[in-house]
Write a structure and sequence with these properties.
The chain has 131 residues and is mainly beta. It has one domain: Jelly Rolls, CATH 2.60.120.10. It is built from 2 helices and 10 strands. The relative contact order is 0.30.
């Protein structure tokens, strides 16, 4: 599925603490080539503000909460509030996004379909609409 959507990850509840895991392509629609995370984001700051030419991504709120704002080619914005560590937001390539409204001690995990490539970034919204 190449549309933005929430992925429900397995959740095993236990009185000692819950467990969620990632494995295989039955959960993730691409081979994971890079993993990174953002943390200690100061209040009021935004992260992202770009798209990727080829990279697909899944964003998970491992701790705390934040909003992922998706802007389509016409400028319409959709907000996805992530606050559960068993939900991942799938973002296909050529999707403009930024993250905001980080709670204290929030931790976002990013699973990427490709290794870091500065040439894959689209930093200008107008450039994205020309692709």
């Amino acid at each position: 599925m190449n549309k933005i959507h929430l992925i429900e990850l397995p959740k095993f509840t236990d009185p000692r603490g819950n467990l969620t895991f990632l494995q295989d392509l039955d959960q993730i629609p691409f081979n994971i080539k890079r993993v990174f995370w953002t943390y200690d984001v100061p209040g009021g700051e935004k992260r992202g503000g770009h798209a990727y030419k080829e990279q697909e991504e899944i964003i998970i709120a491992l701790s705390g909460s934040f909003d992922v704002i998706i802007t389509d080619e016409k400028g319409k914005k959709d907000k996805y509030s992530l606050n559960r560590s068993y939900h991942g937001l799938y973002i296909p390539k050529r999707t403009w996004r930024h993250m905001e409204n980080f709670s204290t001690n929030s931790l976002s995990l990013h699973l990427s379909s490709s290794k870091f490539d500065k040439d894959d970034y689209i930093h200008n919204f107008e450039e994205l609409s020309r692709l």
